[in-house]
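// run 5 | inverse folding | seed 20
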């Protein structure tokens, strides 16, 4: 087991200096300090780049600049530049709990986890941040042999900003896709599906996720493109596990399909929503997901009268 894991915190940023100082302050407030902080400036404008450089310097982080290539490529660059045993991905507008790295250390020494899904809470600029400030390491977690083995747990969220994983595992996987889609983190998680051991942290809260209008996850068209990419990866057999793990794998994939198809309906993209519904209809039947199967057509009809 890794008795003294080291953590490289990787933060991609693109023209978002207004949140970055607060994000970096949350990393520097850790009860267990990070090995290093890497901020990857993904081609910010000249004025923003100057501000970002100042903020990173004042926070004691390392700044790496690249031409604009998207958050996935920026995270890949961070993984390549990092020197810690584990990578902790953090978005430039989110915050870490003060005990996040201490909790990850505890989890890793107890379980030898190679992949961790961090617990999180949400906040936005119009609501107060109910940050859980605690030094108590009474950690509640769920341990699985690997990520696929967690397929029955519908409460697991494994977005990029909630990922903690071994750096060697990340590099061997090829990292994030270079496509500019929102589900690049889900693609990586499924490609790491058989890596032992996977742990979901239930409490305390590790990450405070900021909801705002400019959030990339609010772009429904990119989310749909990302889900279509996941389904294409599955059809072409690019995920591990073969037929033996197909039920678990598709359980995870359809968990991502459902909210995006419904979001498409809400945004008036009925064609895109129907494509996702049809592409996964058989899988949903086999899973017995009747609430979704019967509810989607009703919501589609309702959307005609908006």
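// decoded
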């Amino acid at each position: 087991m890794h008795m003294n894991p080291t953590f490289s915190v990787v933060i991609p940023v693109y023209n978002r200096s207004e949140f970055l100082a607060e994000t970096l302050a949350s990393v520097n407030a850790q009860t267990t300090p990070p090995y290093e902080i890497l901020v990857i400036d993904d081609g910010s404008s000249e004025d923003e780049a100057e501000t970002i450089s100042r903020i990173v310097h004042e926070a004691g982080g390392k700044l790496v600049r690249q031409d604009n290539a998207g958050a996935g490529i920026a995270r890949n660059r961070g993984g390549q530049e990092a020197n810690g045993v584990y990578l902790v991905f953090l978005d430039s507008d989110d915050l870490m709990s003060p005990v996040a790295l201490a909790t990850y250390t505890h989890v890793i020494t107890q379980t030898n986890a190679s992949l961790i899904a961090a617990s999180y809470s949400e906040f936005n600029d119009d609501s107060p941040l109910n940050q859980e400030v605690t030094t108590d390491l009474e950690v509640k977690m769920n341990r699985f042999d690997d990520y696929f083995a967690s397929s029955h747990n519908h409460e697991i969220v494994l977005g990029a900003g909630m990922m903690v994983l071994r750096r060697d595992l990340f590099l061997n996987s090829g990292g994030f896709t270079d496509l500019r889609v929102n589900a690049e983190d889900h693609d990586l998680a499924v490609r790491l599906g058989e890596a032992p051991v996977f742990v979901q942290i239930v409490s305390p809260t590790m990450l405070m996720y900021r909801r705002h209008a400019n959030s990339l996850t609010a772009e429904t068209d990119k989310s749909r493109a990302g889900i279509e990419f996941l389904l294409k990866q599955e059809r072409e057999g690019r995920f591990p596990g073969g037929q033996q793990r197909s039920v678990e794998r598709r359980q995870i994939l359809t968990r991502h399909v459902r909210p995006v198809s419904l979001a498409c309906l809400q945004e008036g993209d009925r064609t895109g929503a129907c494509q996702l519904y049809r592409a996964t209809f058989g899988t949903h039947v086999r899973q017995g997901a009747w609430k979704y199967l019967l509810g989607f057509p009703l919501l589609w009809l309702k959307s005609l009268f908006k």
